[in-house]
Recover the amino acids of this structure.
């Protein structure tokens, strides 16, 4: 696959149509700054589907359309086409040339083209998916992308490797598949809701449809009933009108008769007054009857006028229906005329379409024939080129064989001369080697005897050295352990000295009294005069914890002096044990008792100066410590059996005097206050002991190291190694000389055989070289003829390609015309269907009007 053409029109700086062809040997576009080279890269990226305007160096997408100059107006659209040679079938298309294009109008409409046919962006993306070409691929690299690859910005290098190895297409397909799966899952999650809504909507729609059908049926029944009622009412009015006319005639006749009777009566009135009363009565009756007849006559006249108004309304309605019928007939005639015009236009359009289709078919046949001829020419050209390549390969092979034979013949001549020289040299060397072999054998025997003596001495020396090293190895860990113990004791003593010096854990008032020059500095703290074994120290300290910060003074004066100092300085308060208060109290103290089972008396665990024993007896005389491994007493049992005593369990719980109890976990720093000074002195003694032991071990270690050094100095290992190396070298030299002697014997025999073989090979190669020369000359003649044929076929292929391009352009134009007539025909058919539906609607209205007129008539 190879890019052959780029066609740009209206894109950025390309106002006119620009066609760039990449023929054989053209690999790039060069030009000065501002000539549009980067715009060509942007055009390629754009036509391949780039959707981000910033990647095209533009603020918005319509910015890529040519914006015009002072002398030219702006372009209406931007269009780019790329043509690829696909004769190897890399692109999944049956065409040998594939052209993709993209158009963008200023209105915002955009379209993609594939071989001149409108397609989707996805079609172009899928076409180039497995080729390494795309809008965001590294087949198209702009300047800043090189820095991104070198700096590996946003994993650009990884994207490049994935694209080169073909992994990116699978990632794209995976992303699309996952998106489709997510959409499918979202759709499936909504199916139940949609079905529920549809089911509910169906029930509502069914009810509404049923009600609508009932309404339509009721409307139809109402219309029929109304028409029937109007008809029957009109018939009744006409019948009443006829009966009123008959009654009107009867009443007129009766009125004439009554007038005549009135005249007769008036004539007879003058004849006799006797009959006057009867006549007047008859006259009153007659007048009453006349009045009734007149009233009835006026009522009939009113009814006749109402019937006439109703009749006039029906006649107006019939006239309006007749007028509507006339209008519908006129519209029907007009639609019929328009339909006939559209049919004529459709017939004309069909003729044009048939002509265009025939032309398309004809041009398609010509295009297929041109493509077929071009493919045949291309196959013939490729076959000829293949034959030419085979001839060229044969020529190179024959010439190479000839050169190889010439070189081999020269090499054989040189080798023969070299073998003759080497043979003479080897004969001279052979005589020297025989003398050297005997001399080296004697020297090797002497050196072996010296090495054996040195080995015996070194074996005894190694035993002494190993014994010294073993003792050193056993002594070094002891020295290291002693040094570690000394460091540990020194650090512990230093820490304890700092605690004693700084009185850590005690109030500031106690430190103030200790450091004050005017107070008795010989007064110790209670915690400093007691010493307890480390095992019981935390337990005793828990009992004496409230009193450990008490100063022990001899008299009340010392205590008052300390209190005055603290009061004057405002340094807080302090507590004191006054020893003169305890004189003579030993007899009043609690009587000692035997330690209960599983316990030991606390007083027996404490070492204290005799001057302070009475104080310690009062503090610890009734205190007992539980021994390890013994069963712990219960609080109630201890209270009942040993009232007034204090039990301290092994985990630090205190049963006090049978009335109080204290306990809890043992702290890490418990037992650190009791006997600090005594412990410090003991640690300092242990440090001195550890120092002496460490010094002794270091002296022993130094003596052993000196012994080892002297043994190493007296070792003959290096002399033995030198002797062994010398013996090994001499033995190796002797073996090499012996091997060289034997090799020389074989080489002399091989040289004779090789001379004979060289003569035979030389004769064979000279005969083969003589046969190769005519074949090389014949192939040269065939190559010249093949080159001329190739040039002619190349020119013919170019002509056929030009013909094919012309026919293809003609095919594209005719196809557009055919599409135009197809659209025109479809539009006319739509209009004709519309006119027919209008005519059917008018016909239905006419029939309905006829029915209405008949019903009203």
């Amino acid at each position: 696959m190879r890019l052959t053409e780029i066609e740009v029109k209206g894109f950025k700086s390309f106002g006119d149509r620009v066609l760039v062809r990449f023929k054989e040997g053209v690999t790039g576009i060069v030009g000065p700054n501002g000539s549009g080279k980067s715009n060509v890269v942007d055009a390629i990226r754009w036509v391949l589907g780039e959707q981000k305007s910033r990647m095209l160096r533009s603020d918005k997408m319509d910015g890529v359309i040519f914006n015009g100059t002072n002398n030219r107006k702006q372009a209406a659209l931007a269009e780019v086409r790329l043509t690829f040679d696909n004769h190897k079938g890399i692109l999944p298309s049956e065409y040998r040339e594939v052209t993709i294009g993209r158009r963008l109008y200023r209105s915002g409409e955009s379209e993609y083209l594939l071989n001149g046919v409108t397609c989707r962006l996805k079609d172009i993306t899928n076409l180039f998916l497995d080729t390494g070409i795309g809008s965001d691929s590294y087949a198209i690299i702009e300047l800043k992308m090189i820095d991104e690859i070198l700096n590996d910005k946003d994993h650009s290098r990884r994207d490049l490797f994935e694209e080169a190895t073909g992994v990116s297409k699978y990632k794209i397909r995976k992303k699309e598949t996952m998106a489709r799966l997510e959409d499918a899952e979202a759709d499936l999650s909504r199916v139940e809701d949609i079905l529920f809504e549809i089911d509910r909507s169906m029930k509502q729609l069914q009810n509404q449809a049923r009600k609508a059908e009932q309404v339509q049926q009721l409307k139809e029944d109402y219309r029929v009933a109304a028409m029937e009622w109007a008809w029957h009412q009109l018939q009744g009015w006409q019948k009443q009108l006829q009966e009123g006319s008959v009654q009107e005639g009867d009443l007129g006749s009766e009125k004439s008769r009554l007038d005549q009777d009135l005249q007769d009566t008036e004539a007879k009135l003058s004849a006799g007054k006797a009959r006057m009363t009867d006549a007047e009565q008859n006259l009153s009756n007659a007048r009453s009857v006349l009045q009734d007849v007149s009233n009835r006559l006026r009522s009939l006249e009113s009814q006749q006028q109402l019937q006439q108004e109703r009749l006039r309304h029906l006649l107006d309605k019939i006239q309006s229906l007749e007028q509507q019928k006339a209008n519908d007939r006129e519209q029907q005639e007009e639609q019929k005329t328009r339909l006939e015009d559209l049919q004529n236009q459709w017939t004309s359009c069909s003729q044009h379409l048939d002509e265009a289709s025939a032309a398309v078919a004809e041009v398609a046949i010509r295009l297929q024939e041109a493509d077929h001829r071009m493919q045949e020419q291309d196959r013939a050209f490729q076959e000829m080129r293949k034959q030419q390549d085979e001839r060229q390969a044969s020529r190179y092979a024959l010439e190479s064989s000839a050169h190889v034979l010439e070189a081999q013949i020269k090499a054989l001549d040189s080798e023969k001369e070299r073998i003759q020289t080497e043979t003479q040299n080897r004969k001279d060397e052979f005589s020297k080697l025989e003398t050297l072999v005997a001399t080296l054998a004697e020297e090797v025997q002497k050196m072996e005897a010296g090495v054996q003596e040195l080995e015996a001495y070194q074996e005894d020396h190694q035993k002494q050295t190993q014994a010294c090293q073993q003792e050193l190895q056993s002594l070094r860990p002891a020295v290291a352990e002693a040094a570690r113990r000394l460091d540990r004791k020194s650090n512990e003593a230093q820490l304890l000295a700092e605690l004693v010096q700084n009185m850590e854990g005690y109030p500031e008032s106690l430190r103030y009294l200790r450091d004050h020059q005017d107070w008795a500095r010989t007064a110790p703290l209670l915690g400093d005069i007691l010493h307890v074994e480390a095992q019981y120290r935390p337990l005793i300290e828990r009992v004496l914890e409230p009193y450990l910060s008490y100063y022990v003074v001899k008299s009340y004066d010392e205590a008052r002096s300390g209190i005055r100092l603290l009061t004057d300085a405002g340094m807080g308060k302090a507590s004191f044990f006054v020893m003169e208060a305890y004189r003579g109290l030993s007899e009043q103290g609690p009587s000692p008792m035997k330690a209960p089972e599983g316990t030991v008396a606390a007083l027996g665990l404490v070492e204290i100066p005799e001057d302070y024993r009475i104080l310690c007896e009062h503090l610890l005389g009734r205190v007992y410590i539980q021994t390890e491994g013994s069963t712990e007493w219960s609080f109630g049992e201890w209270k009942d059996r040993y009232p007034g005593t204090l039990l301290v369990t092994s985990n630090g719980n205190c049963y006090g005097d049978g009335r109080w109890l204290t306990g809890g976990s043992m702290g890490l720093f418990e037992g650190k206050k009791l006997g600090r000074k005594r412990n410090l002195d003991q640690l300092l003694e242990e440090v001195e002991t550890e120092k002496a032991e460490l010094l002794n071990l270091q002296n022993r270690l130094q003596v052993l190291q000196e012994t080892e050094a002297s043994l190493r100095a007296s070792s003959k290992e290096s002399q033995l190694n030198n002797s062994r190396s010398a013996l090994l070298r001499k033995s190796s030299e002797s073996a090499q000389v012996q091997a060289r002697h034997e090799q020389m014997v074989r080489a002399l025999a091989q040289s004779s055989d090789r001379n004979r073989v060289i003569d035979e090979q030389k004769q064979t190669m000279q005969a083969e070289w003589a046969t190769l020369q005519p074949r090389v000359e014949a192939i040269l003649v065939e190559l010249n003829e093949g080159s001329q044929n190739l040039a002619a076929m190349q020119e013919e292929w170019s002509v056929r390609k030009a013909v094919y391009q012309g026919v293809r352009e003609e095919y594209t134009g005719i196809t557009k015309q055919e599409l135009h007539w197809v659209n025109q025909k479809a539009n006319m058919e739509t209009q004709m269907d519309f006119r027919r539906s209008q005519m059917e609607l008018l016909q239905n209205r006419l029939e309905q009007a006829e029915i209405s007129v008949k019903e009203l008539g």
The chain has a mean pLDDT of 76.
